[in-house]
TrEMBL record:
Keyword Glycoprotein among record annotations: no
GO BP: any one term: proteolysis
Comp. bias regions, Polar residues: 383-395
Protein's name according to its UniProt entry: Do family serine endopeptidase
Amino acids binding substrate: 79, 134, 164, 234-236
Residue segments, region Disordered: 377-396
One MF annotation (Gene Ontology) recorded for this entry: serine-type endopeptidase activity
Iron-sulfur listed as a keyword: no
Natural source organism: Thermospira aquatica
Domain PDZ: 280-369
Highest taxon listed in the record's lineage: Bacteria
Pfam families: PDZ_2, Trypsin_2
Amino acid sequence: MKHKHASFSWRWPWVLSALVIVFALGLSCSHLFSQSISYQNKNDLVEKTPNLSSVLALQEVLRNIAQSVMPAVVSITVEGEEVIPNPYADFFDDPFLRRFFGFDEMPKEYRRKLQGAGSGFIVSKDGYIFSNYHVVKGANKIVVILSDNRQFQAKVVGYDEELDFAILKINANNLPVVAIGDSDTVQVGDFAIAIGNPFGLSGTYTLGVVSALGRQGMTGFQRFIQTDTAVNPGNSGGPLINIRGQVIGINTAIRSQTGAYEGISFAIPINTALASADQILTKGRVERGYMGVVLGEIDETTRKLLKIDGGVLIARVEKNSAAEKAGLKARDIILKVNGKSVSKPEDVQIMIGSQKPGATVTLEILRENKKQNIQVTLDKRPTTSSAQKEPSQEQPGLATVEFLGGIFAEANKSQLDANGAEYGVILQDVKEDSVLTQIMRPGDIVMAINNQPIKNISDFRDFVKRYGNERSYLFVIASRGYVYYRGIER
């Protein structure tokens, strides 16, 4: 026992030393972890920036837009069915092949379920919603999901397929609604905000600017607002909003090689959608004004020779149409519609289409180098169109005249009728290096040159003898049922 006590006494100084060291280290670590970092809260250089308060005010506006508009933006999910023809149905229709391969009967088609998603926005407290037609087209079931995650089944009240616009309705009350703006006041450079459901990410908010106005869409009645606001699949049908928090458009499409956003997106102007909505809600359908003309573009050379800045050619006037009743003729040039200048066929189409049947429009036209005004009372636009006949290829077999590298001959009645011409000569052939290849092709009819009617091959021969050395020519050409002006210079 005495030996053991001595051994413990010998170790005690070492134990005491270890305890002192541990205690010292504890004090040191305690001091280390009790220290704190003093973080800098202000960026002094930015704080000194002139007019920083204006930028902060803009930021507050953007926050307020998000807070006020997001509750009225909805996500839309759809379920539908697609019918797919069976490419092997006809092949296995033979009884022998059915027995050989063991098929009792080969179905003619298959049905496949489809699912899709898009966006929309509430325009009335009792549940009317604007969206795109392509979002709900062919849907058997439509579910609208609000920002607070409430879900409602929706029905389609009506749609405008040519505009790609649809109105939905859910059974609910006291809903948040968007503020409607005026798309006619939108200008390039304006702020443009999109809110929607891209890739299923509801409540996504993106900011950009208006890049261009009046972009032609896939139909003659689509004139889009173009923006650089990020829009992706699922944004379709959602609102495009200005800096005042008002809806100025319906996001509809993007231009992309990958299917995702690449800097160009398009929206239907809200004023255009409202005009369709008014007819859908009052009539149950959209009706557009119709003149009954076929329109053609006028190239720059032709405009120069006619001494006009713009204009759209009337290539053909339909029988018993509003245009014929008003006195319009083929080869008239429309310069203005209700006082607004036009330069493309789409300009006239959308201006006339935006009017209701029965409305009267005033056209300023150019006829035989003289301007005049003609009033046209519009008809209802038909829903179907007829195909154009191909021109006959039979040759007239009469004397020919060579002019500007082209071979012209007398046109027979079937060739005139096929091209929609009352008279003229037909282009039988043309050299590859001829200037005529720029404006016409074999089978086309020349009805006049430089305001000189060409009723037959004799008239054409006389014209070539008298004016064959001119530097410029203005042709009236009939082709496949259309009549148009084309100018050339050499």
